Amino acid sequence: MSDRPVLILTGPPGAGKSTTAAVLAERAAAGVHLESDVFFRFIRSGGIEPWKPGSHEQNSVVMRIVGEAAAGYAAAGFFTVVDGIVLPRWFLMPLRDVLREAGHEVAYVVLSAPLSVCANRVESREGIPLSGPEVVPTMWSQFEDLGEFEAHRLDVGGRRPDEVADAVENLLAAGSHLL
After folding, report:
1. Which of 61-74 are b and which e, b meaning 16 or more Cβ less than 10 Å from the residue's Cβ?
2. Contact between residue 74 and residue 7 where contact means Cβ atoms under 8 Å apart
3. What is the mean predicted confidence (pLDDT) over 139-152?
4. What SS3 class is residue 142?
5. Using CA of residue 14, residue 129, residue 123, residue 141, what is the dihedral sign?
6. CA 122/CA 80 separation, integer angstroms
7. Measured distance CA(47)–CA(121) in Å, rounded
8. Cα–Cα distances in angstroms (integers) from residue 55 to residues 44, 79, 159, in the given order
9. Which of 18, 60, 140, 149 is the most buried (most CB within 10 A)?
């Protein structure tokens, strides 16, 4: 098994999760960047867009499967970064529990950037899987109050992706973001 915790890297759309996760996984001797959004695309019929009402049960199933996949990679010795929208009040605990039950330590880091930065980044993407102008502000606002997980927030501000990855690695080394 990997000697590093499985990292759940989250934040609103456009905060830099995927870019940072890729940098972290590429830096590791054996690293995996597990994009949870991809798992939603496996549903070919009968699916509900994950941000829409009525999607909670589906989202719970998908996130449990993401956790099982992450646990498998970590058990094989890979430093595993799970990248996705993992809010404390919805999917953090079920995902954490799947990983813990498999014997893995879990770290949680929430990337934070101003709404304007997130919205601009999302607008400039090609093939954006989000629809409607309200999606980014709605999802961004859900990360405003992290409650007991506020200490897991990392302000990415104007940092470059490698600087954000450095900051995350420092947090992991300090053990300050373990769940």
Report:
1. ebbeebbebbbebb
2. no
3. 92
4. coil
5. negative
6. 25
7. 26
8. 15, 30, 34
9. 140
Query: Reading across the β-sheet that carries 6-10, which strands appear in turn?
Result: 31-35, 79-83, 6-10, 106-112, 153-155
State the CATH architecture for 6-174.
3-Layer(aba) Sandwich (3.40)
Question: Which tokens is 24 given?
Answer: 């972290």
Q: Residues 56-104: pLDDT tens digits?
A: 899 899 999 999 999 999 999 999 999 999 988 888 988 999 999 999 9
Contact 172, 7 (CB under 8 A): yes
